[in-house]
Design goal:
disordered N terminus; alpha/beta; 3-stranded parallel beta sheet; Rossmann fold; 380 residues
Length: 380
């Protein structure tokens, strides 16, 4: 299907310089190396109308199900945009799927080069909290999908701290284990800080140990592993080509595993970072947010950020996980973030939804950190 891509009214198109259409003219441009970032959210064998803009894209080979062996087809990248505000929804689910596919491909290649290469993750879960069990199943399923040997060691709710520490030490000394993940929260009688610090730094793929966290805050130091949620957020910003250097950034929340390390990563990237928290007055919160180019909220409070608090064109990353009553749902509640999506999307240039925004990226970064640990152990 060589030739010029048809333009649809109200839609933007660009020519792509990428293979697999080498030798064809696509969008009036000769094929070569694509200058457009590959951010595939949807593959389709022909243009289809959406609520926003369509970007015609041929930079990467489409999935096998869409390949035609006898002629060249044009595939499209559909970017979700609001037609009224030109707002773009950052689809963390699609971006994480892209990353997981890349991780799976790298693992296959490394196993082909060295059959003994076998990335292994062990998750320790204490008790039977339903939310923890859900997260563990999600992580184990993701491991299986990319070729990582993931296993669960479940301990009783009343396990002693000494027994839990002994189990962690066994895994620390096992060379076949590349990552140890202690599922949080732990029962009240266990010291979470002591437990997370017991995991060897080189196996701390959650990045929660004091050694890993301290390295983030040092000017010229590099942590062995960055906590997965902050790392996922930085990946999203880079993927979406959001400029950080010289921008005003507000981070809502100062926890040791999200807000704290994320604020430092954003500062290292050149942002002017303001951290707001539970002691920040509503007036101060609105002032800082109204001047922010980028807002990241991780406070765990529904409706914490509303449209009247943000400026036009800002980027909003919603890390919150909250549940609010909803009589239309079977469970009687629905998940939402910290951000009032309906009002904020009218002003934001880019925004993450909940669910489907940051959450999938956190899981993807667990896999990414585990692969990195396995490669280091093999000196790959």
């Amino acid at each position: 299907m060589p030739g010029t891509i048809p333009s649809e009214t109200g839609h933007k198109t660009h020519g792509c310089f990428g293979s697999p259409h080498n030798g064809h003219t696509v969008g009036g441009t000769r094929a070569g190396n694509c200058r457009w970032p590959c951010q595939t959210l949807c593959w389709a064998p022909s243009p289809r109308r959406t609520a926003g803009h369509i970007y015609y894209h041929t930079s990467h080979r489409p999935p096998a199900a869409h390949r035609e062996p006898t002629f060249c087809q044009i595939y499209i990248h559909v970017e979700k945009k609001c037609p009224r505000t030109n707002m773009s929804i950052i689809d963390g689910k699609a971006i994480s799927s892209e990353l997981r596919a890349s991780i799976a491909a790298e693992i296959r290649d490394l196993k082909a080069q060295d059959p003994s290469f076998a990335p292994r993750l062990v998750i320790i879960q204490v008790g039977d909290r339903p939310d923890s069990s859900t997260y563990v199943k999600m992580k184990l399923k993701s491991c299986q999908e990319v070729g990582i040997d993931g296993s669960l060691q479940k301990l009783p709710d009343d396990v002693s701290e000494a027994d839990l520490l002994a189990r962690i030490n066994e895994l620390n000394e096992d060379p076949s284990v590349h990552g140890i993940l202690v599922q949080l929260p732990l029962p009240a009688h266990l010291d979470e800080e002591r437990i997370t610090n017991a995991v060897k730094q080189e196996k701390d793929i959650d990045g929660f140990s004091e050694l890993n966290l301290a390295a983030i805050f040092k000017k010229n130091a590099a942590a062995k592993f960055i906590p997965c949620t902050p790392k996922g957020i930085m990946y999203l910003l880079k993927h979406e080509q959001v400029e950080i250097a010289g921008k005003n950034v507000v981070v809502c929340g100062r926890s040791d595993i999200v807000g704290g390390p994320l604020s430092k990563l954003l500062e290292k990237a050149g942002g002017t970072v303001t951290v707001v928290h539970s002691k920040t007055s509503p007036e101060q919160l609105k002032f800082y947010c109204s001047n922010a180019d980028i807002i990241v909220s991780a406070v765990g409070r529904a409706g914490f950020i509303t449209g009247d608090m943000v400026k036009q064109g800002c980027v909003i990353i919603d890390v919150g996980t909250n549940y609010v009553p909803d009589a239309t749902r079977k469970t009687g509640q629905r998940m939402c973030g910290d951000v009032d999506f309906a009002s904020c999307k009218e002003k934001a240039s880019k925004i993450t939804p909940v669910p489907g925004g940051v959450g999938p990226m956190t899981v993807a970064m667990v896999l990414d950190n585990l692969l990195e640990s396995a490669k280091r152990s093999k000196k790959v």
